[in-house]
């Protein structure tokens, strides 16, 4: 996805307010051992882009005054109740340096799983995203989670059960192997399910 920005020299809260009134979003681009750059971006195309899941977990092409660079969305602030972006932060990436990124989890197959079909199990999705580590070229748009394996004997799917794309790993922050999805089957349903 491409974002077009303009280098800005004026900074401070007064300058930011003027930009917003003119339909622009103040932002900053930092990282890759380069100086931080203050930028402004047209509000409406950016607002529509930020509504898309892909914008939050993809490498973006940021063009500043005609020069393109690869960046990740790192943070943004929006108005508490108006559909308005107030500020946005991008981080430059180095193609040879691993990045840490939260990517969405896409669940499928739970309605066809034995736990739901045979035993009327109630499926609960515990997480909607997960932190991964990879080189920028290996960044997936999302991680697929196949829930068709849920059954009476397998009532949850954990982080270690994920089929990760090549080059992608889950950073270990000393956390345990957390559940991503669980299924609750009513007492007695498992016994009577085959009848």
TrEMBL record:
Descriptive protein name: Large ribosomal subunit protein bL25
Classification via PANTHER family: RIBOSOMAL PROTEIN L25/GLN-TRNA SYNTHETASE, ANTI-CODON-BINDING DOMAIN-CONTAINING PROTEIN, RIBOSOMAL PROTEIN L25_GLN-TRNA SYNTHETASE, ANTI-CODON-BINDING DOMAIN-CONTAINING PROTEIN
Residue span(s) of domain Large ribosomal subunit protein bL25 L25: 5-90
Span of domain Large ribosomal subunit protein bL25 beta: 98-184
Family: Belongs to the bacterial ribosomal protein bL25 family. CTC subfamily.
Role noted for this protein: This is one of the proteins that binds to the 5S RNA in the ribosome where it forms part of the central protuberance.
Organism of provenance: Limnobacter thiooxidans
Pfam short name (any one): Ribosomal_TL5_C
GO molecular function: 5S rRNA binding; structural constituent of ribosome
GO cellular component, one term: cytosolic large ribosomal subunit
UniProt keyword annotations, A-Z: Ribonucleoprotein, Ribosomal protein, RNA-binding, rRNA-binding
GO biological process, one term: translation
InterPro entries xrefs: Rbsml_bL25/Gln-tRNA_synth_N, Ribosomal_bL25/Gln-tRNA_synth, Ribosomal_bL25_b-dom, Ribosomal_bL25_C, Ribosomal_bL25_long, Ribosomal_bL25_short, Ribosomal_L25_dom, Ribosomal_uL5_bac-type
Subunit structure: Part of the 50S ribosomal subunit; part of the 5S rRNA/L5/L18/L25 subcomplex. Contacts the 5S rRNA. Binds to the 5S rRNA independently of L5 and L18.
Residue ranges of coiled coil: none
CDD domains listed in its UniProt record: Ribosomal_L25_TL5_CTC
């Amino acid at each position: 996805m491409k974002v077009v920005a303009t280098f800005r020299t004026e900074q401070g809260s007064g300058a930011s307010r003027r930009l917003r009134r003119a339909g622009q979003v103040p932002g900053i681009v930092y990282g890759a051992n380069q100086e931080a750059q203050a930028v402004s971006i047209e509000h409406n195309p950016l607002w529509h882009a930020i509504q898309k899941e892909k914008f939050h977990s993809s490498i973006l092409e940021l063009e500043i005054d005609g020069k393109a660079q690869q960046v990740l969305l790192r943070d943004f602030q929006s108005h508490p109740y108006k559909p308005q972006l107030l500020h946005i932060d991008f981080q430059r990436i180095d193609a040879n340096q691993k990045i840490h990124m939260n990517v969405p989890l896409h669940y499928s197959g739970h309605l066809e799983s034995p736990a739901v079909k045979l035993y009327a199990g109630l499926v609960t999705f515990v997480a909607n995203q997960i932190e991964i580590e990879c080189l920028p070229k290996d960044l997936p748009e999302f991680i697929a989670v196949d829930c068709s394996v849920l059954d009476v004997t397998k009532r949850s799917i954990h982080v270690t059960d994920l089929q990760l794309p090549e080059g992608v790993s889950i950073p270990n922050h000393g956390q345990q192997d957390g559940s991503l999805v669980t299924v609750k089957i009513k007492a007695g349903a498992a016994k009577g399910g085959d009848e």
